[in-house]
Amino acid sequence: MATMEIQELDLREMGTLIQSRVVLEVSNQVQSLLDSLETTTLEIAVTGESGAGKSTFINALLGLHDGDPRAARTGVTETTVSPTPYEHPRLPRVHLWDLPGTGTPRFQAETYLQQVQFERYDFFIIVASERFRQNHAELARAVAAMGKRFYFVRSKVDLDLRASQKRRPTRFQEVQVLREIEADCIRQLEKEGLEFPKVFLISSFELHKYHFQLLQDTLAEELEGHKRHALLLSFPSVTSEAVQKKKASLRKHIWKRALMACFVSALPGLPLHLNIPLLMKTLDSYRKAFGLDDSSLGTLALTASKPPLELKKQVTSTLGKDLSENVVQAILSQAATYGRVAARLVKDRVPLLDNLVAGGISFVAAYYLLHTALDSFAQDAERVLLKAYDLDNELQSSVFYPPEPGFIFD
Q: Does residue 248 register a pLDDT over 70?
């Protein structure tokens, strides 16, 4: 009976059935990949002595100013008595933990790690504003013994530089002073028995300077897979290099976003169209990742002592200025036009693939949109940085050129 029923189905009905099942199965697999990406957690522990600037450092990483209700409490006295998580404002599964200070006389590294539940953290950042001491080295050794990575951040280097310049105004050389500070930190830690310690000189108020980019690069290199992606998205883009690395990480996942947006077009019986709300959500997340939303621009303006409107004027791309459905539809229509001639040829010769071809056109259109958006947002972000920090370097060009024909294979 089943055989007779199959024989009675015409070719188009069979194709429709097969397409529906294929699309459903593939869409489930792609959604699973996206779910895995979006549910990845990143738990960063920040510890050090009272007054070292832990909370200020955390707020700088989160892109929050001290007055923000979501920010870590700052002060000249120890404000943290138990591990306190601070959720990233854009990535709810990324947390920076402000751990209690390590400088008390009763401090014992192993006991301390048990108390703060060391196993929950992906790595530890140990902050000191002056000299690294024995307790820092003890903590680092205990962290390493438990299979976790640790990094030393020497904070407040901007204050050290200003003090040095006042002491020796005629002989002051910033690069030389920074080298001296770094060498002294390494010497102290090696004296305490640590081999090849990684020390990064940071100013939480001037992240675009000194070793912040090196810190980010080091962390990214030593994290794997989705955690590396989460780190690159969560850290503020304060240099051109950071902007480009964030763009590259996002670009790796464009094809998944494009497929999910166009699967509805491959289902039989539906006209050629895309999931516009899904694309709008993705584009909005891109814009926020590059710090181009009003809230991020406002925080950067406060940090850089610039008028917010002055930074906002640097956002010149079409999607950056007007992320609306009308603009998105216009870009999609332009991209879809490229595939319609080929689609007609396929439709005439192989009617069975009618709906799959429609889905293919939609995929190219969605991919083109997201690819274009990443390039334009990255260019906007670099212009904003140049203006915010009065950088001398200029972008080679502020004009956006559409991707070349091979762009899908980046």
A: yes
